[in-house]
């Protein structure tokens, strides 16, 4: 067994992962199995380093002494040569000194060239503002290491380094300023054109059962939607009481399809309005950042105003209830046509614009998961638009139609308490999503998943027609609840919403600005990617607290429907299955991305979604 080189408690210099910079650290422990040293930085950050990434302080002091001793000798030599030349010497002496001067100038030019070649290498590792935050373990320690980082930045600046070299060799250019600008621009060009290895974006691991699984899902998902809607129409919506198959001609109506198209393009028109701020998304693999207009909440207000006008002119909104199956079929047909368009256009997309999870080379798999990451028509981002606008706002409109249908069918002057709770809870969820629209830019749907059948069908069909299942169920199966029960269900929904919103806010704010003073109380584990893994707040309670809040809210949405049938609780069961799948997917993705840091995070936060259970 190899013996360890550094003892516990010894102060050494440790290299920060992913950089060439060394910091003063203290050895705290050594693992005989992995042969890794656990070291502690001055700001309290603990990392596991290999022995090759650790050096003794004496080696750094020795190098510093050598570099400092070499400069004076060169400067004195230069000064002695300049003093030895005299204008009173004979011509021969002048010629000899001229030749020596030419040789000396050539030596100096060679030295400058060598320096200018070496300097860009240093510039490539120049710590940026973000890197400085990354090197400092926790947000509150940013000021602690600011001085050392500023010194490093000053040492690595090419213009200051060139000035030092020119002063050292007593060079005075005829056109000083012009040459400095040319030298500096050449260095910047050298850094900019430095070749970067192109990483293959081919999908190596397929999800959802691969090609066969995705093919089955393309058939299974629409069938599930039609089955659930048919069940809600029955007097006995038990799972074993299969509804009769409807006639094919009853499933299609061109007027309904026209309404679907009108709805989609109306929301697109609201999206294109020059209102709301424009923000940048997270960096793509190429380093480019796309711009997005944040005006979903304004679109919701405009839609509400349009619906109000229709109701004022006595438009029968419960028409949606009578033809809900036809609307679902038309929406499914539109999402399928959109998916075909998305796949065809993705075949001409550049390699760096393809989705990392939808570039397998197999048609059916890439068609389902999405081949292109951010398909756009000009500045119109199709995936971002469909993520929140037509489906989420359509969900609220369908719920309102169910409320009006209940009042008309059962001759009610006011909606039932159960219907009011379902509409209110889900309205809060949609308004929250649109109000915090910018947060969706950090989700995996936007940053990782391509736009294909999975998201197109999910956004345009599954969300509005399955998420409104409870309201649709209550129209045909009214349920009476008391005020104390309603109060308890409301408290449960508020608790789930609080977890959901506060957890998402912590994550989104930390991703965008880890140095925000408002987040100074949050602790995190630094990773080699430059990002941190939160270990306090909700993210120190379970690994996916936002999923926990989602499940609690889903249960609160179903409870007003009573316990006569399990159908209203399909959404809860589906949501648990979906989030468990997403959680497993996130676990795999994070393990590959963060490596040892993720293992440390899992040890620190052992529960995934449900505390003390899972």
Task: Explain what you see.
- The structure is a single chain.
- The chain has 21 helices and 11 strands.
- The chain is elongated and about 90 Å long.
- The longest helix is centred in the first third of the chain and has 34 residues.
- The strands form 4 sheets. The chain has a 5-stranded antiparallel β-sheet with strand order 4-3-2-1-5. The protein has a two-stranded antiparallel ribbon with strand order 6-7.
- Helices cover 57% and strands 7% of the residues.
- The protein has 614 residues and is α+β, with helices and mostly antiparallel strands.
Low-confidence stretches: 63-99, 108-200
Tell me the count of domains: 3
The helix count comes to: 21
Strand content: 5-15%
Residue-averaged pLDDT, rounded?
A: 77
The number of strands is 11
Strand arrangement in the largest pleated sheet: 4-3-2-1-5
**What does the overall shape look like?**
elongated
Distance between the termini: 39 Å
> Approximately how much helix is present in the residues?
55-70%
Protein topology:
Elements: E1 11-15, E2 22-31, E3 36-41, E4 46-49, E5 54-55, H1 57-84, H2 91-124, H3 129-135, H4 146-156, H5 158-168, H6 176-192, H7 210-233, H8 254-272, E6 277-280, E7 291-294, H9 296-312, H10 319-322, H11 324-346, H12 363-369, E8 376-377, E9 380-381, H13 382-409, H14 417-435, H15 444-447, H16 453-466, H17 469-476, H18 483-512, E10 524-526, E11 532-534, H19 545-558, H20 570-594, H21 596-604
Antiparallel strand pairs: 1-2, 1-5, 2-3, 3-4, 6-7, 8-9, 10-11
Helix pairs in contact: 2-5, 2-6, 7-11, 7-12, 7-16, 7-17, 8-11, 9-13, 11-16, 13-14, 13-16, 13-17, 14-17, 14-18, 14-19, 18-19, 19-20, 20-21
